[in-house]
Design goal:
- With 380 residues, the protein is mostly helical.
- It has two domains: 133 residues, no CATH class; 216 residues, 3-Layer(aba) Sandwich (Rossmann fold).
- Helices cover 51% and strands 6% of the residues.
- Helix 5 runs antiparallel to helix 6, helix 6 packs antiparallel against helix 12 and helix 12 packs parallel to helix 16.
- The N and C termini lie close together (11 Å).
- The structure holds zinc ion (ZN).
- Zinc ion binds next to helix 1.
Length: 380
C-alpha cells in the first residue's frame, strides 16, 4: 500500500506533488480551501447568470443557423477529432437539428489509428462533408520537438504547455478553413469538465492575439509554419467566425454520449475510451512529467473527481497505484512513446538523460526523488 500519511486523506494528491503540501490534518491545499489554485490547476466555477446567458446565446445561434439552412453551403464548421464528443456533436447537428455542418479534422501526424478508424466508420453513416487538413504535420512535429526539448520550468507541467500550444494550432487551422469558406460559426465538442481556459465561447480577442505563439518567430520555424496561424490578412480581410463550445451549456452525460456513438455504430464498442483516442503526444508528455516532477496533470483532474464523489476515492487510489509505476517506467503505451520520441529526434535514453540533468538543477530535487520512489516501490 502507498503509505497513508503521504497521500491527502480527502482526495488522492500525494504530499510534495508539484505545488501540493499536506497540512497537519493530512489534507492538501485544494481540499482545505475550495478556492485554492496554482499554476497547474484551478477550478473554474461558472455562476448561474453567466451560464444562463450562454444558454440564451446558444439558442440564438441555433436559430440563426436554422435560418441560414439551404441559403448557405454550410452553417457551421465542426472541429472533428474522431473522438466520442465531436462525433456526438456532428450527430446532434445533422440528425438532431437538421443542419449541414462542414467537418474539419487537422491531422497532426500523431492521430491514433483508432481515431482514424472512428472517422471512417462515422463518415460512412452520417451524411456530412469532411476536410482532412494533412499538409500541417511537419509544423506539429517542429512544435513538439521545440517544446519537449526546451521545457525548462521547475513548476509547470509539460502537459500543460503542450495541450495549450497544440490546441491553439489545431483551432487556428480549423478557423482558417471557416474563414476561407466564409462560415460564421466554428463548434468544438469539449465536454463540460474541460472548462480550463474557456467557457462556452473563445473570445475573439484571444483568437486574434493569443493563439499565435511567440516561439513561432524562432528560426526553427519557417513561413509555412507561421501560415498555419491566423495571418494579418486573415484578421484584416476575413470575418473571424465565432468559436463556440456548445457542450458547456447543452445537457451532457458521458455515458449517454458513449451509448449514442456505439449504438449508431459510429464508433466500435470500446473505441470511445478517451485513453485510446488521446494522442500519443500526451502520453509522451505524461512520461516526461512523471519522471521530471514526480506527478502528472491528470492527478489533479482525478483528485477533483474524488472531491465531487468521495466514494470513488478507493477506485482512483487503486488506479494510481497500478498506472503510476507503468507511466514512470514507460510501460504504459511504451511503443507509442518511443515512436513519438524518435519522430522528434530523440530516444527514451537521451530523453531521460535530459530529464536527469534538469532535476539536478531543481531546488525540489530531493522531494521529486522521494515521491518517485514512493510510486516505484509499488511494483510487485
Ligand atoms: Zn486533497
Amino acid at each position: 500500500m502507498i503509505e497513508q500519511q503521504s497521500i491527502c486523506g480527502n482526495c488522492i494528491l500525494p504530499d510534495g506533488f508539484l505545488g501540493v503540501h499536506l497540512n497537519l490534518d493530512g489534507v492538501c491545499e485544494f481540499c482545505a480551501n475550495p478556492d485554492h489554485k496554482n499554476v497547474n490547476w484551478s477550478r473554474s466555477i461558472i455562476n448561474t447568470e453567466r451560464r444562463q446567458n450562454a444558454i440564451i446565446d446558444w439558442n440564438n445561434i441555433i436559430l440563426k443557423m436554422a435560418n441560414n439552412h439551404r441559403k448557405v453551403k454550410y452553417e457551421c464548421v465542426v472541429g472533428y477529432s474522431g473522438g466520442k464528443d465531436s462525433t456526438a456533436l456532428l450527430d446532434y447537428l445533422v440528425n438532431g437539428l437538421d443542419l449541414k455542418p462542414l467537418a474539419v479534422t487537422s491531422d497532426t501526424g500523431y492521430m491514433t489509428n483508432i481515431a482514424k478508424e472512428n472517422i471512417k466508420d462515422t463518415l460512412s453513416k452520417i451524411q456530412v462533408d469532411h476536410i482532412m487538413v494533412e499538409n500541417v504535420a511537419t509544423t506539429f512535429t517542429k512544435l513538439y520537438r521545440y517544446l519537449f526539448l526546451n521545457h525548462k520550468s521547475n513548476d509547470i507541467f509539460l502537459t500543460r504547455y503542450i495541450c495549450d500550444y497544440c490546441s491553439d494550432l489545431i483551432h487556428s487551422i480549423i478557423v482558417k478553413e471557416a474563414i476561407k469558406n466564409e462560415i460564421p460559426y466554428v463548434l468544438f465538442g469539449y465536454s463540460p469538465d474541460q472548462i480550463f481556459r474557456y467557457f462556452f465561447e473563445i473570445p475573439q480577442e484571444e483568437i486574434i492575439r493569443k493563439w499565435r505563439p511567440e516561439i513561432i518567430d524562432n528560426p526553427t520555424f519557417d513561413d509555412k509554419d507561421r501560415k498555419c496561424y491566423l495571418t494579418e490578412e486573415d484578421i484584416n480581410h476575413g470575418r473571424i467566425p465565432r468559436v463556440i463550445l456548445p457542450y458547456h451549456v447543452i445537457p451532457y452525460r458521458e455515458e449517454d454520449v458513449i451509448n449514442l456513438v456505439e449504438s449508431k455504430n459510429y464508433i466500435k464498442k470500446g473505441h470511445a475510451d478517451p485513453l485510446l483516442t488521446n494522442c500519443n503526444v500526451v502520453h509522451a508528455a505524461t512520461f516526461y512529467d512523471f519522471n521530471r516532477y514526480g506527478g502528472i496533470l491528470y492527478a489533479y483532474q482525478y483528485a477533483e473527481l474524488v472531491r465531487q464523489n468521495p466514494q470513488s476515492r478507493k477506485k482512483w487510489l487503486r488506479t494510481l497505484r497500478i498506472v503510476a509505476p507503468l507511466i514512470l517506467e514507460n510501460k504504459f503505451k511504451e511503443q507509442e512513446v518511443i515512436e513519438f520520441l524518435e519522430k522528434i529526434g530523440t530516444s527514451p535514453f537521451e530523453f531521460l538523460k535530459l530529464i536527469h540533468n534538469q532535476i539536478e538543477k531543481d531546488p525540489n530535487k530531493s522531494q521529486i526523488e522521494t515521491i518517485k520512489n514512493l510510486f516505484r516501490k509499488r511494483r510487485r
